[in-house]
């Protein structure tokens, strides 16, 4: 057994129930019934379907992803915070032989008891410090719970990953805890994780996967890691022209730069890896705008081993976000999306909801009066550098955690709803994870594909 699969020695907090009326409980399905691994293969009507998605690969001309000594479907579910991809989504994807990903950001918001424990913020410097420590501890406890519950749902299949933004303050503690809990893979974006090999040196079986966008970034990171006698186990190449959420470009104006296109970046990265003699050791995972079997076949023909998707997995029953959140994303079209600079100082793409349109209208005036605040709005300083707290000119002047948390509850008036470009595979329908993965692995003809509204 791989060390990453053996969690018997890890001290995990017991999984606590979510609040009454929540769409699911840890270890339970949307109806609140106990959830078994084989429930994930149940199809409409109550019948059980065999776990045969692997057989679709050869029939569809696709090849599997070989990662960490396992043969997987070439589908990676991207990490989405706050609370969008937690145990239920990640565990469901892994149970079908994919790679499911838990986003580490502010997971306490999925656990009412942890929110109650951290809901009171008293005035004064000492009280603020105590609140910060309590919130950070609660988020680590929530992360343990989510990893444990996801592992139950996965039933030993696939792989489970944690996604941690390099830009968050608790990057180090989150990675450390996930590794101690036996997570299979650590995926890091929103910055160069040059220190990740050092953090994982006591966990040689853990898979380390950076998210990058261009060949230059790949070359820099790989060379730095090679000096530490470590290679990435895979690299996600995310196209910022197509992806949702925080994007891998320095400025909004660069999002459409041709260097990010798969037709350019995949061959360039492969050429670098080939020159370094490590081409066969690092699979590439293409992310951004992947919506169909044809998309997967296209990037595999370019040399990628797999794809990563985020937004399409939101439109599944197993996604941990509220139904209202899913409705906003499924009903949005490409013309409803806007690009802007977030509070993390990174370009981002999201649905132009009431809140976001209102914010963008007043942003120039907020920039004029930006200044250093005496403390973080929520006390726990979620970002290493924050546009609002630090008064950084040109950065977003809003609390990103507050707005993302409102979104996952489905609050369109206050929420920030990240979304990628492109019509979803099932239009505005919500389907199961299995149905989505079957669709992605099956070639679609004009006769077999149901009508989908254009983006």
What does this molecule look like?
With 455 residues, the chain is α/β, with parallel strands linked by helices. The protein folds into two domains: 62-331 and 427-441, Aldolase class I (TIM Barrel), CATH 3.20.20; 334-408, no CATH class. Helices cover 33% and strands 12% of the residues. It has 15 helices and 13 strands. It has helices spanning 53-59, 87-95, 112-117, 125-154, 171-180, 196-199, 215-226, 262-275, 293-302, 311-314, 323-331, 354-368, 387-390, 400-408, 433-441, and strands at 65-67, 70-72, 75-77, 99-103, 159-165, 185-189, 207-212, 235-238, 245-246, 284-287, 306-309, 337-341, 347-351. The strands form three sheets. The chain has an eight-stranded parallel sheet with strand order 3-11-10-8-7-6-5-4. Strands 9-13-12 form a three-stranded antiparallel sheet, with no helix packed on it. It has a two-stranded antiparallel sheet with strand order 1-2. Helix 7 (215-226) links the parallel strand 7 and strand 8 (235-238). Helix 2 (87-95) packs parallel to helix 4. The longest helix is centred in the N-terminal third of the chain and has 30 residues, at 125-154. It is globular. 49% of the residues are buried. Residues 1-51 and 450-455 have low confidence and may be disordered.
């Amino acid at each position: 057994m791989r060390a990453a699969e053996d969690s018997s020695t890890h001290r995990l907090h017991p999984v606590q129930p979510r609040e009454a009326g929540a769409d699911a409980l840890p270890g339970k399905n949307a109806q609140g019934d106990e959830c078994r691994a084989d429930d994930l293969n149940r199809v409409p009507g109550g019948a059980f379907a065999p776990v045969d998605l692997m057989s679709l690969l050869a029939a569809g001309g696709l090849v599997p992803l070989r990662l960490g000594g396992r043969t997987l479907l070439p589908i990676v579910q991207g990490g989405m915070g706050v609370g969008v991809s937690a145990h239920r989504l990640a565990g469901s994807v892994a149970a079908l032989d994919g790679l499911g990903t838990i986003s580490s950001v502010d997971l306490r918001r999925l656990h009412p008891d942890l929110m109650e424990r951290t809901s009171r913020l008293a005035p004064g410097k000492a009280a603020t410090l105590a609140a910060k420590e309590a919130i950070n501890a609660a988020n680590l406890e929530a992360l343990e719970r989510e990893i444990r519950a996801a592992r139950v749902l996965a039933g030993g299949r696939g792989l489970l990953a944690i996604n941690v933004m390099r830009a968050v303050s608790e990057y180090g503690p989150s990675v450390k805890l996930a590794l101690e809990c036996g997570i299979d893979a650590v995926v890091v974006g929103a910055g160069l994780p040059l220190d990740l090999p050092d953090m994982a040196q006591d966990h040689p079986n853990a898979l380390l996967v950076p998210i990058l966008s261009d060949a230059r970034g790949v070359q820099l990171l790989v060379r730095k890691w090679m000096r530490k006698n470590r290679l990435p186990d895979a690299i996600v190449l995310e196209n910022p022209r197509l992806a949702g959420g925080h994007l891998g470009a320095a400025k909004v104006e660069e999002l459409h730069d041709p260097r990010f296109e798969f037709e350019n970046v995949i061959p360039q990265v492969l050429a670098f890896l080939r020159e370094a003699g490590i081409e066969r050791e690092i699979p590439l995972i293409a992310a951004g705008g992947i919506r169909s079997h044809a998309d997967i076949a296209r990037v595999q023909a370019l040399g990628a081993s797999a794809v990563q998707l985020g937004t399409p997995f939101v439109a599944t029953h197993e996604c941990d976000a509220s139904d209202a959140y899913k409705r906003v994303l499924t009903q949005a079209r490409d013309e409803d999306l806007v690009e802007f600079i977030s509070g993390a100082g990174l370009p981002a793409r999201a649905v132009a909801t009431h809140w976001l349109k209102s914010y963008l209208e007043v942003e120039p005036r907020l920039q004029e009066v930006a200044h250093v605040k005496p403390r973080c709005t929520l006390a726990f300083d979620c970002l290493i550098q924050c546009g609002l707290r630090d008064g950084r000119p040109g950065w977003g002047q809003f609390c990103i955690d507050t707005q993302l948390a409102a979104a996952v509850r489905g609050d369109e008036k206050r929420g920030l709803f990240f979304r990628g470009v492109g019509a979803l595979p099932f239009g505005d329908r919500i389907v199961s994870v299995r149905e989505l993965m079957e669709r992605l692995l099956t070639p679609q003809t004009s006769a077999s594909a149901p009508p989908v509204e254009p983006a």
